[in-house]
């Protein structure tokens, strides 16, 4: 899963509209600073360190800091890939999206972005109730999260919609984890983003 995430994330970018700042293989400069990854050995973590980050180092960071440490492995296996991928993309918001979904499914769980016994139990019960649908429901909730960001932050719309007006990276990425029958058609997508101008 981590190798697939690195492939989706791509190489070095430093988009001024991306709050993550300088990023390589999806690992942001902020994450590298938090982890103290001074790859150049100059005593500080800068863009030069981000540029030096290898694919293997990114995979290791993802496995340890974005899958194992947050506790994603304790969730039902059907949720692993999508929650993991979104955690890399959106941090604890990936868990909050899940927790909100669990609440909509009638599970009493706090929306705090942390995976603990309460969230694990709620996810297991929700999976037992809807084993064939929970992964799609999470993917749809994830897609809606990205739309909400783009609705409120015009600078982020380029991540949800291409210049040609089609589905952008965020939406395509969310739909990779949703059964095709729940993908938005081109017409549905255009209608959803029509208010963006």
Automatic annotation (TrEMBL):
Q: Which residue intervals define the domain Peptidoglycan binding in the entry?
A: 93-175
- Pfam families named among the record's database cross-references: Glyco_hydro_108, PG_binding_3
Q: Which InterPro entries match?
A: Peptidoglycan-bd_3 (IPR018537), TtsA-like_GH18_dom (IPR008565)
Residue ranges annotated for the TtsA-like Glycoside hydrolase family domain, each copy included: 3-91
Domain of life of the organism encoding this protein: Bacteria
Name this polypeptide is given = Peptidoglycan-binding protein
Source organism (scientific name): Thalassococcus arenae
